Structures are given as C-alpha cells and as structure tokens.
UniProtKB/TrEMBL annotation:
Protein name: Radical SAM domain protein
GO molecular function: 4 iron, 4 sulfur cluster binding; catalytic activity; metal ion binding
Organism: Acetohalobium arabaticum (strain ATCC 49924 / DSM 5501 / Z-7288)
Pfam families given in the database record: Radical_SAM, Radical_SAM_C
InterPro entries: ELP3, Elp3/MiaA/NifB-like_rSAM, Radical_SAM_C, rSAM, rSAM_horseshoe, rSAM_sf
One GO CC annotation: cytoplasm
Length: 341
C-alpha cells in the first residue's frame, strides 16, 4: 500500500530576512504576524501529529515562509533541535526548508546536515538578472548556481521555486529561467505566478500603473509550457500557484492571476492540447468516449466542463466520459487507444 505523505508546515515569517522583495509581504502570505519560537514550533508539531494517522506514513517537518538560513545559526539550531527530536524518536522521517540562494554556505549546510534536513528549496524566482534586480531580490543568478551546486554536493535534495510574471519579465526571460533551472537538475520545482499582495512595493507600482500582472489566461499558458518542459526532463512540479491551503490570505491579493484551483486550470489546459494533438484536424466518428481514472475526471473535463465543450465545438461531435479505475492517473483511453497526458 502506498504511504501517506504528511508535511507539518512551520512558517517562519520574514524573520531573519533584511530584504524587501517587491512582491513580498511575508506576514500577509503566511497569515502569521508573530515570530516563530521553539516553543511555538513544538506546539504546532504536536497539534499536527495529534490529527495524523501515523501508520504507514511518511512525515516531514517543513520550515517555510521566510529565509530560514538567514537566521542566526543559534536560532536556526534551536528550531531544528525541536523538530529533530521527533526524527530521533522515529515519529518524523526528515526535515525540509526553504531559503534564499545567497544564504547558503558550507557552515550552514554542515549544520543542516546534523539535523536530518533532506530537502532545501531555494526561492530562485528568476534566473534573469534584470528581473532579479527589478524585483529587488538582492541576489544574482550566480548565487543561485553556486548555492544549487553546493546543496547537491552536500547530498541534499534541491527544490527550485520560480515566479513567472515578475517585473521586467518577458516570455523569453521566463523560459530562459526554466532552461537554466533544468540545468541545475533540481529534485522538485514549484511555480508561483506573481500575485500583487497588499502592502508590497508591487502593490504600489500596480496602483501607479507601472506594473501589470499576468492575466489568469496568460499565467495558465505560461505555467503549462513550463510544466511541459520540466516534465519532459522528469522533474516533478509539486505545486503550481498559491493555493488557499498554503496560507494565502486571499483578501491580501489585490491583483494578479489568483485562482483557487490554479493547478487544475493548467493541467486541464494541457490535457486539452494533448487531446487535440492526438485527434488531429478532424474526427470521423459522430461520438467519442474517453475513459479515465476517477481522480483524473475533473482534470479531463476542465472547469465547468470547458474542455468537453471546447472539443465538442471544435470537432462537432458528441463526447462521453466513462470512469475506468484500472487506468493510471493521466492516462486516457480514446477509441480504445491509450494516451498518456
Ligand atoms: S527574501 Fe523572501 S522573505 Fe525576504 S523579502 Fe524576499 S521573498 Fe520575502
């Protein structure tokens, strides 16, 4: 039986971060106003554990939300010790965290290695220098390359987070960033289309008409192409878009391509492309039946059945969907031929 996978998120809001990236109001994003302390971290872990079925489960504790390794080593260690105790007791499998590329060095990595940290995610956002500068990131592409190489060298798994739609980004710079990110051979990727959050510099630029976020449709198209590129290299994209479950205070989003089911929009759009490519210019039958796993049904159909409507309109045929749980997720049986999306 497949293991359940739980992540216990501990948000460390803006603590340790002297930067002011134009898109970030970390306290709004995480929904946490106060600094994280070892005591609070322990309470969060206990609360999560009390709701979990620990049998046959993989459990990770994740320090998210800020620039964890920007904290003083002593503060990092205090938080890591709290979490590591659960690893030593065999309750939690490992730790993971997210941080900035310029807060990685040998001393930091040596310390993280002592506490069973397995995955380090870097907030890369872009690999185009002009975009990083316009976003006031305060680090260069070279910092990303150096940090990624060191993380890999130390044997950690590497995660890369990208943000399409930042100021001064273009289609070209976004795909350049993806190509460069692929070159870093990450173990996982997250794609967060840029949103305008209240209280940020980006919100000011937006209200002054100096910054225009991606539309929802543009963001879906770009993320779809990025997803295809990463998938083609076997790199898992574990998240696309900021979901309410990740702690986004929706009220704080004042503009940008926010959608509560953003990933599904991207996946459904990709499915539609693949089906059209498979069917070609025209279909001779008056009706087609698609068979899919029940978990993939809503992705195939698209929001409000939009994919089915688009296909019916384009080909002038009737389309039926049947559930077949012998098929894998992302497998579609069309006219008895299997198509993997
Ligand atoms: S480095 Fe991270 S936490 Fe700091 S301002 Fe930028 S996005 Fe926010």
């Amino acid at each position: 039986m497949k293991k359940r996978h739980y992540i216990i998120p501990i948000f460390v809001p803006h603590q340790g971060c002297p930067h002011d990236c134009v898109f970030c109001n970390q306290r709004e994003i995480t929904g946490f106003q106060e600094d994280m302390t070892p005591k609070k971290a322990a309470r969060i872990i206990e609360e999560y554990l009390s709701t979990m079925n620990k049998e046959n489960s993989k459990i990770e504790i994740a320090f998210y939300g800020g620039s964890f390794t920007g904290l003083e080593i002593k503060e990092q260690t205090q938080l890591l010790e709290v979490a590591y105790k659960y690893c030593q007791e065999g309750i939690v499998d490992n730790l993971r965290l997210s941080t900035r590329p310029d807060y990685i060095d040998r001393e930091i990595l040596n310390n993280l290695a002592k506490y069973n940290v397995q995955i380090i995610e870097l907030g890369v956002q872009s690999l185009a220098d002009k975009v990083l500068q316009a976003s006031c990131r305060g680090h260069t592409p070279e910092d990303v390359f150096k940090a990624s190489r060191l993380i890999k060298k130390f044997g950690f798994e590497l995660g890369i987070q990208l943000m399409p739609g930042l100021p001064k980004s273009t289609q070209e710079s976004m795909f350049y960033s993806v190509q460069q990110a692929i070159g870093l051979t990450p173990d996982l990727v997250r794609i967060y289309p840029t949103l305008v959050i209240g209280g940020t510099k980006l919100a000011e630029s937006y209200s002054e008409g100096e910054f225009t976020p991606l539309t929802l449709q543009e963001a879906v198209e770009i993320c779809k192409e990025e997803l295809k590129l990463f998938r083609s290299r076997g790199i898992p994209v574990v998240r696309i878009g900021l979901q309410p479950s990740s702690g986004v205070n929706k009220e704080a989003v004042i503009a940008g391509p926010f959608h509560p089911a953003f990933r599904q929009l991207v996946e459904s759009n990709l499915v539609l492309d693949r089906i059209k490519a498979y069917l070609g210019a025209k279909v001779d039958e008056p009706q087609l039946t698609f068979r899919v796993n029940s978990r993939f049904n809503s992705v195939l159909r698209g929001q409000k059945n939009n994919n089915l409507k688009a296909l019916q309109e384009e080909y002038g045929i009737k389309i039926e969907v049947e559930v077949d749980n012998d098929l894998d997720y992302r497998e579609i049986l069309i006219a008895e031929r299997k198509q993997i999306i």
